[in-house]
Specification:
This protein is of the alpha+beta class. It has 2 domains: 72 residues, 2-Layer Sandwich (Double Stranded RNA Binding Domain), CATH 3.30.160; 94 residues, Orthogonal Bundle (Arc Repressor Mutant, subunit A). A 4-stranded antiparallel β-sheet has the order 3-2-1-4, covered by helices on one side. Strands 5-6 form a two-stranded parallel ribbon. β1 and β2 form a beta hairpin. 33% of the residues are buried. GO terms for molecular function: DNA binding; metal ion binding; methylated-DNA-[protein]-cysteine S-methyltransferase activity. It is found in: Nucleus. This is Methylated-DNA--protein-cysteine methyltransferase. Its EC number is 2.1.1.63.
Length: 195
């Protein structure tokens, strides 16, 4: 899976970077990438969500983009739109290729992120310790936390699904309120799909 999602062409610094901005229930999400792959996803500061109400806004629209969107940016946009508006579709959509230095060389962080993407599905949660076990180092729960902080493509690689062993949500780069919203959104959507 990693080889399909990771494109090894020019280095990230040599890329002609483009961006797309989506208006989502979380506020604006900025996607940076090039023709090779997605570099980063940034959760912007202006949060629109109401705590405890994951159905607050059910749209996800492009509100800004460079003139020509590359295929990886189109795939990422489609995937995020499905995540927020039609979660039953995300399993049918391709994960966009990633083009970030973190994915270029073997490391525990890369292994943790690939394991999380591959094994923890929509509506599920896993503890830092459980993810360390799955990634091959049962004593590395703290290192898993570090890997979550370095995740350049949140939501797609679902670091919000990693919680404390005691059930608390734990930290999140965008703030614990965003992590709680994402977990609630997935739980609500999974329950809707079950009916």
């Amino acid at each position: 899976m990693a080889s399909k999602l990771l494109q090894k062409l020019p280095s990230e610094n040599q890329c002609k970077k483009m961006s797309v901005v989506l208006g989502t229930p979380l506020g604006r999400i900025k996607i940076l990438g090039c023709k090779v792959g997605v570099h980063e996803i940034h959760l912007q500061e202006e949060v629109m969500l109401l705590p405890g109400h994951p159905e607050t806004l059910v749209s996800c629209e492009v509100v800004g983009a460079t003139e020509d969107m590359t295929e990886p940016l189109k795939q990422c946009t489609a995937w995020l739109q499905a995540y927020f508006c039609e979660p039953q579709m995300i399993e049918k959509l391709p994960i966009p290729p990633f083009h970030h230095p973190l994915f270029e060389h073997a490391s525990f962080t890369r292994e943790v992120l690939w394991t999380l993407l591959r094994d923890v599905k929509f509506g599920e949660a896993i503890s830092y310790k459980q993810l360390a076990d799955l990634a091959g180092n049962s004593k590395a729960a703290r290192a898993v936390g570090g890997a979550m902080r370095r995740n350049p493509v949140p939501i797609i690689i679902p670091c919000h699904r990693v919680i404390c062993s005691g059930g608390q949500t734990g930290n999140y780069t965008g703030g614990s309120h965003l992590k709680e919203w994402l977990l609630s959104h997935e739980k609500l959507q999974k329950e809707k799909l079950a009916y």
